[in-house]
Design goal:
By secondary structure, the chain is mainly alpha-helical. Helices cover about 70% and strands about 5% of the residues. Strands 1-2 form a two-stranded antiparallel sheet. Strand 1 and strand 2 form a beta hairpin. It is elongated.
């Protein structure tokens, strides 16, 4: 009822006054947005993003971890020979499983590390700052060379 009465009064005003009041209302809405609404949204974006990040990364890591354990047990149970006895024709398949599992394990641990990094973020800590993961920078492999069978490996990125 109030809005209907207000609209009726507004349309009885001259056109130039309607324009001036329209501009004043637009400025009032912009100021209200900037001073009241937007700070509340920014205030909520931090905690909501933090919680969603933990849920998404932790969920992917735990789901993938569950399935890697389930599939690994299934694969081990499907090997027809006794423990310790492997036929030569089974070796390539086992190496294939090993390769796929290592990639899958890397994928799972990557998401687990991301979840832990998000969890530690409010405390200004990370897995890198704790010394658990290396902090990768452009000269990392020059400062920390990799040795394979006693030979120094320096990757060159062009």
């Amino acid at each position: 009822m109030f809005v209907k009465k207000l609209k009726e009064i507004f349309f009885k005003l001259p056109g130039w006054l309607q324009g001036v009041l329209g501009v004043i209302v637009i400025f009032a809405l912009v100021i209200f947005w900037e001073l009241v609404i937007y700070p509340r949204i920014e205030w909520l974006k931090g905690p909501i993003g933090y919680i969603l990040g933990i849920i998404i990364y932790g969920g992917i890591a735990s789901y993938s971890g569950y399935w890697i354990v389930k599939v690994t047990i299934g694969a081990l149970l499907s090997i027809p020979s006794k423990f310790g006895e492997v036929k030569m024709k089974e070796v390539p398949r086992l190496f294939g499983y090993l390769f796929i599992y290592l990639i899958w394990l890397f994928f799972t641990l990557t998401f687990l590390g991301a979840a832990i990094n998000i969890l530690l973020d409010p405390f200004d800590m990370s897995l890198q700052s704790l010394g658990i993961l290396p902090h990768m920078y452009p000269g990392y492999f020059l400062d920390n060379p990799v040795y394979i069978f006693g030979y120094k490996i320096i990757p060159i990125f062009d």
